[in-house]
Design brief:
- It is elongated, with a radius of gyration of 18 Å.
- The chain has one domain (2-151).
- The chain has helices at 11-22, 68-74, 100-108, and strands spanning 2-9, 25-27, 30-33, 39-43, 46-48, 50-54, 58-62, 91-93, 96-98, 129-137, 141-143, 149-151.
- The longest helix is centred in the first third of the chain and has 12 residues, at 11-22.
- The chain is built from three helices and twelve strands; from the N terminus they run βαββββββαββαβββ.
- With 153 residues, it is an alpha+beta fold.
Length: 153
């Protein structure tokens, strides 16, 4: 799962946020099953996340889909009205009216996020920072040998 956003604010603070996100690890809860489907052992592997830089000052946080509500809450999805920048408004360029966010979404193949319930989220440094949530991207699902399903990167 890929959450796409644009951070803005004091440069040092934005750099701290991006550093915190790049160093993030999340713990998945899972189980090992025997041939009959009975749970034999509880496992909790640590999953590393990744932060990518996209064109136009856009960032992409890649994470397991099990953490969708926490990550989207931490990145202000569902709270876009709190942002001081509104990319949804129309602007006129050489007499042509466009919406910048629509052009960015089309160029980067970004979709609107699904409905989710706001949670406590993940704690990242967000003082003097604003985040413009743009959307999410899906990749194909793959299954590993141990039985976990996840998004292909």
């Amino acid at each position: 799962m890929h959450a796409v956003f644009m951070p803005y604010g004091k440069k040092e603070c934005v750099d701290l946020l991006l550093r915190d996100m790049a160093a993030q690890k999340l713990q998945l809860k899972g189980w090992k099953k025997d041939e009959k489907g009975n749970i034999t052992e509880t496992v909790a592997p640590w999953i590393e996340c990744q932060l990518r830089v996209l064109p136009l000052g856009v960032y992409e946080f890649i994470f397991p889909k099990e953490y969708l509500p926490q990550v989207l809450t931490a990145l202000w999805f569902g709270r876009a009205e709190d942002s001081t920048y509104n990319l949804n408004k129309e602007i006129s360029v050489f007499g042509i009216k466009i919406r910048p966010i629509d052009q960015i979404k089309k160029f980067l193949r970004i979709e609107d996020p699904p409905k989710f319930e706001q949670t406590d989220g993940i704690l990242w440094y967000q003082e003097n920072i604003g985040i413009i949530p743009i959307g999410i991207r899906y990749d194909g699902e793959i299954q590993e040998k141990n039985g976990y399903w996840h998004e292909a990167i």
